[in-house]
Amino acid sequence: DPPRTVARMRLTLIRHGDAYAGLHGTIGGRLGCAGLTALGVRQAEALRDHLADTGALRPDVLVASELPRAI
Q1: Which tens digit of pLDDT belongs to each residue from 7-30?
Q2: DSSP code of 4?
């Protein structure tokens, strides 16, 4: 048998920033998601800038939710 090649994979999970649902103690879900708070927007922007500046994450595939807090 020929030698087998083992592919390595790194899975990185990034959670959304501060969201209105958590602020008001409600469960977000598809119907209750009102998006990010001003703090959550700043958190997302800071992560975007960090990743762009450092190149720390170079994904082959991106998967994201369509909920307002994730886009």
Answers
A1: 888 899 998 888 887 666 666 667
A2: P
Output the DSSP codes for 26-38. ---HHHH---B-H
Task: Determine the Cα–Cα distance for residues 33 and 26; give it in Å rounded to an integer.
Answer: 9
For the chain, give the secondary structure using H, E and C: CCCCCCCCCCCCCCCCCCEHHHHCCCCCHHHHCCCECHHHHHHHHHHHHHHHHHCCCCCCCCCCCCCHHHC
Q: Are 40 and 69 in contact (CB under 8 A)?
A: yes
* Tokens at 69, concatenated: 């807090």
* Residue 57 structure tokens: 């994450």
